[in-house]
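Just wondering, can you check both lines?
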Amino acid sequence: MALHEGPGVTGDQALQRLAEGNKRYVAGRATHPNRAAKRRAEVAKGQQPIAAILGCADSRVPPEVVFDQGLGDLFVVRVAGNFADEAGLGSLEYAVAVLKVPLIVVLGHGKCGAVEAAIKGGESPGHIRSLVKALKPAVDTVKGQPGDLLDNAVRANVVTVVGRLRGMKPILVDFVEKGKLKVAGGRYDLESGVVDLIV
């Protein structure tokens, strides 16, 4: 397959592959695919990832491990709070427009420290305030709702970011409308390892 031809799967098929990988990981039966020297040599010539993951920078949530994928399988953008700033959006647009990735997954997780900082509010030092500012709208949408505020805010943030990506002009919205891109969102549970789709 030539470079930038795409991975040859649909967004639904890619999402199914990630779900199957997560089930293996949760059950302790990870296969650790595409990590041998042969695969390294293959992807040195070019990449055809099946999905882009917009995930949190949290050390406990590495997408390749959580979804039992290997070298060249995932195009990963990570930032605390799993939101997309300009650089993140540009990275995701590259994955879709150039690499022909058919799926973007926004991956939030339980006990997210960045979301917790947005809940606490107050003055944050340095550039941390930009994270808090980006996450605050999601927190505000769930204040006063029943249930755990932190978990509600984590979920609301995922839903907000997915909606933003689906409508992001000029590139992502075009691929979504043409049926060439699926944007989904999930929450990773730190204790169980399970990724639940929320949107």
